[in-house]
Task: structure prediction
Amino acid sequence: MVRWLMLLPPVLFAGLAATFYIGMQRDNPGQLESVLIGRQAPALPTTALPGIPGLTDADLRTGRVTVLNVWATWCPPCRAEHPVLLEMARDGVRVAGINIMDKDANAVAYLAEEGNPFIGVATDPNGRNRVEWGVTAPPETFILDGDGTVLFRFVGPLIGTDYETRFVPELAKALAGEG
Result:
């Protein structure tokens, strides 16, 4: 009996090592896959920030590509990516937002101070709708084609090398197919 128990730790270690090795052989081991890719965007929350245009499902189906950003004021990476969202909006990209698990007053004040890149903002104060979108934590950003189909999901802030090498080419590809 004792000899059999002595084999257990090396066998468990080998199994764990094999699992890690298989996971590292994926095309992009750091990327979380989304079941929404190629499907219609889930329903949006029906609530909005006071004094700021809301966001409706029809806003995602205008025939134009939309970047949908899930954000919160209490999220430091969301604040870090905000200038990128402002730049996208200045460049003519349709940027929409879902503010999650935040206080309306904080979100309104933040957008008044830092600028509002969004064509509309839906709110998800309890975080219930984020589950339908598969959002694990803000910020997360989706690229939607003109009929509301999810083309790409980006987890994390829109800054740095990962943003430049993965998000920017996907947005360019979506915008090129828009015409």
Q: What stands out?
A: The helical segments are 2-24, 76-90, 104-114, 129-133, 160-176.
